[in-house]
Structure formats: structure tokens, C-alpha cells
Specification:
The chain has 229 residues and is an all-alpha fold. It folds into two domains: 93 residues, Helicase, Ruva Protein, domain 3 (Orthogonal Bundle); 123 residues, no CATH class. The protein contains eleven helices and no strands.
Length: 229
């Protein structure tokens, strides 16, 4: 279990001592979880058990698309019991910003992410329907086509920041990845095609670029005007 992740996600020793049995519970979201797991490229053992345990003990939240990717990364770094608590802490921070819970909060969240992305890319606009914010902000740095090793490096870096900076960091990483792709391939930027253009290979380089973008943003913006949720 990665102790750095435990500390940054605020998982306590008491949490781990009272971890419920991680198993397949019968919940309303069983079929949806199965479908999402089948679509994944490489899922960790116990993924279904962690997700169904979370849904069983957090029925007011249940399951929303994308939690499979987040839990997959947590299992990779923290094992099943730690992943349950990591998911609890992470979703506790984001749940009120989900479209299925609070549409106004979700709109504000996505708008802020989009502003970051536009500024970090020097003017490129993400999808107007907030697809990018949903994929890379709310479900920050999940593993689809990219390897879980690469994605975990990005999480390592993100977790060193306060939660209030996670949104900014995920936008900076997506911006750096998109610009890198455009520079390398010469493709014409199209917001509707942006998701295939964001790849997280060579994550150490992306982390360095994302940190430079964030620093530059702070230098150029007057004190007190930093965008926050």
C-alpha cells in the first residue's frame, strides 16, 4: 500500500481497521458496473468487488460512469481495502459537482475547467458540452488507452497538491498532452476530436509541462484572482 497516497487522500488507520468486507454485494448498479468493466482495457483484480462494496455502503451516491477507472487506479496503488476508502474520500470531494447531483455545481465545475484548459493552451477551446471536463476533470487522469503505470505517475503528482488544485492540475495535464500531440502530428485542432488527441504516455514529461503551465498562470494572474471552485 502506497503510504503517500494514504496520507494525501486522508485515509486514517482507523478507517483501514474498520474496512467492510470487500465483496460482490447485490446493488441496483450491478449491471452498469459489469458493462463498464467489460469496456476497460486492463482492469485490476477485485475491481467489481470494490465498486459494489462502495455502492452498498454509499447508496445515496451509487455508481456513476467513470468510477471504474478511478477505482482501478486506487486498487493498483492501495489494494482493495485501501481503494474502498480512497474512493470514499475522492468521491466525497467530487460528488456535489456531478451532473446527476447538482447541475449548477457541475456546470460551474466544468466551466472553470474549460477556462483553465483554454488559458493553458493559449486559446484552444474544449468541447462546449463539457466532455473534456467530465473525462479529465471529474474523472481526473483515468486509464483508458494508456497504461495504468503512466496514469499512476500523474496521480502521484496531482495528490501532492491540495484538493483545490486538482482541477487545475488535471486541466494542465490535458492541455500539455493535447498540445504535444498537435505539435508532433501536425493535426488540425478540433474540439470534438480532442479526447483521442489526449494521450498520457511519457507522463514524467507531462507532469513537468503541467507544473510549468500552472506556475506561469500564477505569475500572469493578479493576486487574488486565481480561479477556484
Amino acid at each position: 500500500m502506497d503510504e503517500t497516497w494514504v496520507r494525501h487522500l486522508k485515509i486514517t488507520h482507523n478507517d483501514l481497521c474498520v474496512t467492510p468486507a470487500i465483496k460482490n454485494y447485490n446493488t441496483l448498479w450491478e449491471n452498469t458496473i459489469d458493462l463498464d468493466i467489460k469496456r476497460m482495457r486492463n482492469n485490476q483484480n477485485n475491481l467489481k468487488e470494490v465498486l459494489s462494496t462502495y455502492c452498498y455502503f454509499h447508496p445515496c451516491d451509487g455508481y456513476v460512469q467513470g468510477m471504474n477507472f478511478i477505482a482501478n487506479v486506487f486498487i493498483y496503488k492501495l489494494s482493495a481495502g485501501g481503494a474502498f476508502w480512497a474512493l470514499t474520500r475522492f468521491m466525497g470531494y467530487f460528488r456535489t459537482r456531478m451532473v446527476c447531483f447538482d447541475k449548477d455545481a457541475f456546470h460551474d465545475y466544468c466551466s472553470t475547467w474549460n477556462k483553465y484548459f483554454t488559458e493553458f493552451t493559449d486559446g484552444l477551446s474544449p468541447d462546449g458540452e463539457f466532455v473534456m471536463a467530465l473525462k479529465w476533470g471529474l474523472f481526473a487522469m483515468t486509464c483508458g488507452k494508456d497504461t495504468i503505470d503512466d496514469v499512476s505517475v500523474l496521480w502521484d503528482a496531482m495528490l501532492t497538491y491540495p484538493q483545490s488544485k486538482w482541477l487545475q492540475f488535471s486541466a494542465a495535464v490535458a492541455s500539455a498532452a493535447c498540445v504535444r500531440h498537435l505539435q508532433k502530428t501536425g493535426d488540425v485542432y478540433q474540439s470534438r476530436l480532442i479526447i483521442p488527441q489526449v494521450r498520457f504516455y511519457n507522463p514524467e514529461q507531462l507532469v513537468r509541462r503541467a507544473k510549468r503551465l500552472m506556475c506561469q498562470l500564477m505569475i500572469n494572474r493578479p493576486s487574488g484572482l486565481d480561479m477556484e471552485l
